[in-house]
Amino acid sequence: MLLKKSLTLSMFLISSLSATQFIADRFDQNMINAQKRIIQERISQDNRTLNDIVIKNKKFIDLNWVMYELELTIQDKKETVKVPLILFTDGRYQTTTLTDIRSGIRIEQEFIDNINARFNNNSQKNKKREEFEKNFKLNNKYYNKEHLLYGNRDAKNKIVILSDPLCIACRQVIPNILKKAKQNKDIAIYYYHYPLVGLHPTANIISAALMKAKNEKKDITDLELKWFSSKLPFNEYKLKDPKIALKAFNEIFNLNYTIEDLKPYLDKLNKEMQIGNDVQLLGTPTMLINGSLYNARQKIAKVLFND
């Protein structure tokens, strides 16, 4: 009888804990869903997209109020950024600040201090990156005929571009650079593929197709310029089917490549991407001028557009 009571009590406790966890998870999810609606509505007018909300920390203030430290991942046309947010909710109402009226202390201060500490660490990383860029010099092996788009190898200024073929920022920037470089004999443009398949799942297929066309179709002039100037019939971030991506590529260039055709170039692509490791690539487009990463975009703008 005692054993039976003990088992019954254990089962009751397990059931209660499971129910409590379910309620807590539901509370968290309801909060996140509400925030997604609110934040997306606020940022959509600026052409930004909320990709994700992650709960970094959580603290119960009392029986009603919960304090959340959230991390928002927001995407715009140029970059993806992580944004911290402190939020208090009782399940019905929410606020971004809460003060204990007895002590006058803002309850979220501890979380703010933690966020500031992380940003200080990021500041140190930025300083290290700046030092790396100031001291970096590109190996001359990368100035080779295979990757030369325009100009000649003896040109006064050598610009190297590393790009993902489905990168939105690249599609905005690269066409203007290529058009201008074509008109200037003192500039040599070198191009390297660096597909970011974590962001654009079919980017490697497009890169391989561009490499094959570059190598075999000498009658296609301004291949890269035409690609980056084209309008794509699919979502770069969502499309995962390589056949659909390749079909779009074939239609733009009037080709009939198959996935099987691209296998040798997919293997070659891995070797080509070594340059990304050398420059410690952070994103695309990454550009260098005369072997230097430091302030490269400003220098390129001055050389090309007298800015």
Describe the structure.
- The protein is elongated and about 75 Å long.
- A four-stranded antiparallel β-sheet has the order 1-2-3-4. Strands 5-7-6-8 form a four-stranded mixed β-sheet, with helices on one face.
- It has helices spanning 2-43, 109-135, 168-182, 203-216, 223-229, 242-253, 259-272, 274-278, 296-305; strands spanning 49-60, 66-75, 80-89, 94-95, 148-150, 157-163, 187-193, 286-289.
- α4 (203-216) packs parallel to α6 and α4 (203-216) packs across α7 (259-272).
- Helices cover 48% and strands 18% of the residues.
- 21% of the residues are buried.
- A hairpin with a 4-residue loop joins β2 (66-75) and β3 (80-89).
Judged by helices, strands and strand pairing, the structural class is alpha+beta
Tell me what the CATH architecture of the largest domain is: 3-Layer(aba) Sandwich
Main-sheet strand order equals 1-2-3-4
Number of strands: 8
Characteristic terms for this protein:
alpha+beta, Nuclear Transport Factor 2, Chain: A, 4-stranded antiparallel beta sheet, 4-stranded mixed beta sheet, 9 helices, 8 strands, 48% helix, 18% strand
In short, what is this structure?
This protein has 307 residues and is α+β, with helices and mostly antiparallel strands. The protein is built from nine helices and eight strands.
What's the topology here?
Elements: H1 2-43, E1 49-60, E2 66-75, E3 80-89, E4 94-95, H2 109-135, E5 148-150, E6 157-163, H3 168-182, E7 187-193, H4 203-216, H5 223-229, H6 242-253, H7 259-272, H8 274-278, E8 286-289, H9 296-305
Parallel strand pairs: 6-7
Antiparallel strand pairs: 1-2, 2-3, 3-4, 5-7, 6-8
